[in-house]
Amino acid sequence: MIRPYQPxxxxxxxxxxxxxxxxxxxxxxxxxxxxxxEHNADSYLTIEMNNSIxxxxxxxxxxxxxxxxxxxxxxxxxxxxQGLGKQSVEYCLNLLGKDERVEIFIVxxxxxxxxxFEKFDYRIIRIEKNYWGDGLDLYExxxxxx
Length: 146
Description:
The chain is an alpha+beta fold. It has a single domain, classed as Aminopeptidase, CATH 3.40.630. 28% of the residues lie in helices and 38% in strands. The chain has 4 helices and 7 strands. It has helices at residues 10-19, 29-40, 84-97, 114-118, and strands spanning 2-4, 44-49, 52-62, 67-75, 104-109, 123-133, 136-144. Strand 6 (123-133) and strand 7 (136-144) form a beta hairpin.
Protein backbone atom coordinates (compact mmCIF):
# COMPACT_ATOMS: atom_id res chain seq x y z
CA MET A 1 0.00 0.00 0.00
CA ILE A 2 1.23 3.48 -0.89
CA ARG A 3 -0.02 6.14 1.49
CA PRO A 4 0.90 9.67 2.64
CA TYR A 5 3.77 9.92 5.11
CA GLN A 6 2.92 10.41 8.77
CA PRO A 7 5.46 11.60 11.38
CA UNK A 8 5.07 8.27 13.18
CA UNK A 9 6.57 6.60 10.06
CA UNK A 10 9.96 8.26 10.53
CA UNK A 11 11.62 5.57 12.67
CA UNK A 12 10.43 2.78 10.37
CA UNK A 13 11.65 4.64 7.30
CA UNK A 14 15.03 5.27 8.92
CA UNK A 15 15.39 1.55 9.63
CA UNK A 16 14.77 0.80 5.96
CA UNK A 17 17.10 3.63 4.92
CA UNK A 18 19.91 2.10 6.99
CA UNK A 19 19.30 -1.28 5.31
CA UNK A 20 20.29 0.49 2.07
CA UNK A 21 23.43 2.07 3.53
CA UNK A 22 26.20 2.01 2.38
CA UNK A 23 25.24 0.17 -0.80
CA UNK A 24 22.76 2.73 -2.19
CA UNK A 25 23.20 5.70 0.16
CA UNK A 26 26.21 7.22 1.87
CA UNK A 27 25.83 7.31 5.65
CA UNK A 28 26.16 11.12 5.51
CA UNK A 29 22.87 11.29 3.58
CA UNK A 30 20.70 10.31 6.55
CA UNK A 31 20.72 13.93 7.80
CA UNK A 32 19.56 15.12 4.36
CA UNK A 33 16.77 12.56 4.37
CA UNK A 34 15.60 13.59 7.85
CA UNK A 35 15.64 17.24 6.78
CA UNK A 36 13.61 16.34 3.69
CA UNK A 37 10.99 14.66 5.87
CA GLU A 38 10.88 17.66 8.17
CA HIS A 39 10.28 20.15 5.35
CA ASN A 40 8.49 18.05 2.72
CA ALA A 41 6.31 15.66 4.68
CA ASP A 42 3.29 16.59 2.55
CA SER A 43 4.95 15.14 -0.56
CA TYR A 44 6.47 11.99 0.89
CA LEU A 45 4.89 8.56 0.62
CA THR A 46 5.24 5.53 2.85
CA ILE A 47 5.05 2.06 1.33
CA GLU A 48 3.64 -0.71 3.51
CA MET A 49 3.17 -4.43 3.16
CA ASN A 50 1.41 -6.49 5.82
CA ASN A 51 1.21 -3.41 8.08
CA SER A 52 5.00 -2.97 8.02
CA ILE A 53 6.91 -0.09 6.49
CA UNK A 54 8.99 -1.48 3.63
CA UNK A 55 9.95 1.71 1.81
CA UNK A 56 9.25 5.24 0.84
CA UNK A 57 9.49 7.80 -1.93
CA UNK A 58 9.12 11.52 -2.31
CA UNK A 59 8.05 13.78 -5.12
CA UNK A 60 8.01 17.51 -5.64
CA UNK A 61 7.76 20.23 -8.25
CA UNK A 62 10.79 22.40 -8.84
CA UNK A 63 9.28 25.66 -10.02
CA UNK A 64 12.70 26.97 -11.14
CA UNK A 65 12.71 24.59 -14.11
CA UNK A 66 9.09 23.34 -14.12
CA UNK A 67 10.21 19.80 -13.40
CA UNK A 68 8.43 17.07 -11.51
CA UNK A 69 10.93 15.14 -9.43
CA UNK A 70 10.97 11.80 -7.68
CA UNK A 71 13.30 11.66 -4.70
CA UNK A 72 14.40 9.50 -1.78
CA UNK A 73 13.05 6.25 -3.20
CA UNK A 74 14.19 3.16 -1.32
CA UNK A 75 12.90 -0.21 -0.13
CA UNK A 76 13.73 -2.96 2.29
CA UNK A 77 16.07 -5.25 0.29
CA UNK A 78 14.02 -8.25 1.48
CA UNK A 79 11.14 -6.97 -0.69
CA UNK A 80 13.20 -6.50 -3.82
CA UNK A 81 11.66 -7.75 -7.05
CA GLN A 82 8.05 -7.45 -5.88
CA GLY A 83 7.15 -4.48 -8.07
CA LEU A 84 7.14 -1.90 -5.29
CA GLY A 85 9.57 0.39 -7.10
CA LYS A 86 7.55 0.27 -10.29
CA GLN A 87 4.30 0.99 -8.43
CA SER A 88 5.91 3.88 -6.56
CA VAL A 89 7.38 5.52 -9.65
CA GLU A 90 4.12 5.15 -11.58
CA TYR A 91 2.21 6.62 -8.62
CA CYS A 92 4.52 9.64 -8.43
CA LEU A 93 4.57 10.19 -12.20
CA ASN A 94 0.77 10.13 -12.21
CA LEU A 95 0.58 12.72 -9.42
CA LEU A 96 3.22 14.97 -10.98
CA GLY A 97 1.80 14.59 -14.47
CA LYS A 98 -1.53 16.07 -13.39
CA ASP A 99 0.13 19.34 -12.40
CA GLU A 100 0.10 21.90 -15.22
CA ARG A 101 3.38 23.43 -14.00
CA VAL A 102 5.29 20.23 -14.75
CA GLU A 103 6.91 20.25 -18.18
CA ILE A 104 9.53 17.53 -17.66
CA PHE A 105 10.33 14.79 -15.16
CA ILE A 106 13.75 14.60 -13.49
CA VAL A 107 15.28 12.07 -11.12
CA UNK A 108 18.72 11.92 -9.53
CA UNK A 109 20.10 8.55 -8.54
CA UNK A 110 23.31 6.54 -8.82
CA UNK A 111 25.02 4.03 -11.09
CA UNK A 112 23.21 1.37 -9.07
CA UNK A 113 19.69 2.57 -9.92
CA UNK A 114 19.76 4.35 -13.29
CA UNK A 115 18.87 1.23 -15.29
CA UNK A 116 15.66 0.95 -13.27
CA PHE A 117 14.65 4.47 -14.31
CA GLU A 118 15.52 3.77 -17.94
CA LYS A 119 12.55 1.37 -17.91
CA PHE A 120 10.34 4.47 -17.50
CA ASP A 121 12.00 6.20 -20.48
CA TYR A 122 14.27 8.41 -18.38
CA ARG A 123 17.55 9.22 -20.12
CA ILE A 124 20.87 10.23 -18.59
CA ILE A 125 21.70 13.93 -18.91
CA ARG A 126 24.61 14.19 -16.46
CA ILE A 127 26.99 11.98 -14.50
CA GLU A 128 29.20 13.19 -11.66
CA LYS A 129 31.65 10.82 -9.97
CA ASN A 130 31.54 10.34 -6.18
CA TYR A 131 28.74 12.92 -5.83
CA TRP A 132 26.75 11.13 -3.11
CA GLY A 133 29.82 9.68 -1.41
CA ASP A 134 32.88 7.62 -2.20
CA GLY A 135 31.92 5.25 -5.01
CA LEU A 136 28.36 6.61 -5.39
CA ASP A 137 28.05 8.60 -8.59
CA LEU A 138 25.27 11.02 -9.47
CA TYR A 139 23.16 10.04 -12.46
CA GLU A 140 20.78 12.86 -13.33
CA UNK A 141 18.05 11.72 -15.69
CA UNK A 142 15.08 13.28 -17.42
CA UNK A 143 11.92 12.11 -19.11
CA UNK A 144 9.54 14.03 -21.34
CA UNK A 145 6.05 14.72 -20.14
CA UNK A 146 3.86 12.85 -22.59
